[in-house]
From TrEMBL:
Residues 69-217 form the Cupin type-1 domain. Residues 1-30 form the signal peptide. It is found in: Secreted, Extracellular space, Apoplast. Disulfide bonds join C40-C55. Transmembrane segments: none annotated. SMART domains: Cupin_1. Oxalate binds at N104, N114, H119, E124. It comes from Forsythia ovata. PANTHER family: GERMIN-LIKE PROTEIN SUBFAMILY 3 MEMBER 3. This is Germin-like protein. Mn(2+) binds at H117, H119, E124, H163.
Length: 225
């Protein structure tokens, strides 16, 4: 409570309820900022770089800009991880530009793994369509939360946390994931650490993992392009 004296000498007492401050409109806490127009089909070829893509002129927008069939095809899982992520982000589907949402298709062969990774700009949710997967989430306090999912079951990954999906069934697994960012980004831990360009110095990795350089060399060789 606060008390002030006005010019006529009358005392005006008023209460400043701190709780009232909390009722004021709060800034958006979504991952991407809210759009300022109905749509802004991203001109992903533009030479200008802003926080998102410039909008394609509305006169050039057609129905096709609002549809995307890039997630309809099964991805090729013939790679060392036995999994493939097909992105439905703003780069693949410019109609998502500024809308703060996107999706992925994740195909995982039996025994395959979508390796530990995190999304710096988004929380993720997903639904398993086919197969049986182990989903794991590791917190900043190094606690692992995990569960084996069957078709129709969903999961959620809080923004920025490391997570993985492993196919623990006999069949191919198909997952659709969704994000609260038009470009969530992905930090894939093994690739980030062992396949960066230029590469992370061996001394950093031997110290970080407490192993000999031969071990680091072997891991790096697995990811050499
Ligand atoms: C799965 O974790 C994905 O990022 O699509
Ligand atoms: Mn993910």
């Amino acid at each position: 409570m606060a008390t002030v004296k006005n010019q006529s000498g009358l005392y005006v007492q008023f209460t400043v309820c701190l709780i009232g401050l909390f009722l004021l409109p709060l800034p958006s806490h979504s991952s991407d900022p809210d759009p300022l127009q109905d749509f802004c089909i991203g001109d992903t070829k533009s030479a200008f770089s802003v926080n998102g893509f410039p909008c394609k002129p509305a006169i050039n927008v057609s129905s096709d800009d609002f549809f995307f069939d890039g997630l309809s095809k099964e991805g090729n899982t013939s790679n060392p991880f036995g999994s493939i992520v097909t992105p439905g982000n703003v780069l693949a589907f410019p109609g998502l530009n500024t809308l703060g949402i996107s999706m992925n298709r994740v195909d995982v062969a039996p025994g395959g793994l979508n390796p530990p990774h995190s999304h710096p700009r988004a929380a993720e949710t997903g639904v398993l369509i086919n197969g049986k997967i182990l989903v794991g989430i590791i917190t900043t306090g190094n606690v692992l939360y995990s569960k084996i999912l069957n078709p129709g079951q969903m999961f959620v990954i809080p923004k920025g946390l490391i997570h993985f999906e492993m196919n623990v069934g006999e069949e191919k697994a198909l997952i659709f994931t969704a994000f609260n960012s038009h470009l969530p980004g992905a930090v894939v831990v093994p690739l980030n650490l062992f396949a960066s360009k230029p590469s992370v110095p061996d001394g950093v990795l031997t110290k970080a993992f407490q192993v000999e350089k031969t071990v680091i060399d072997e891991i790096k060789s697995k990811f050499a392009a």
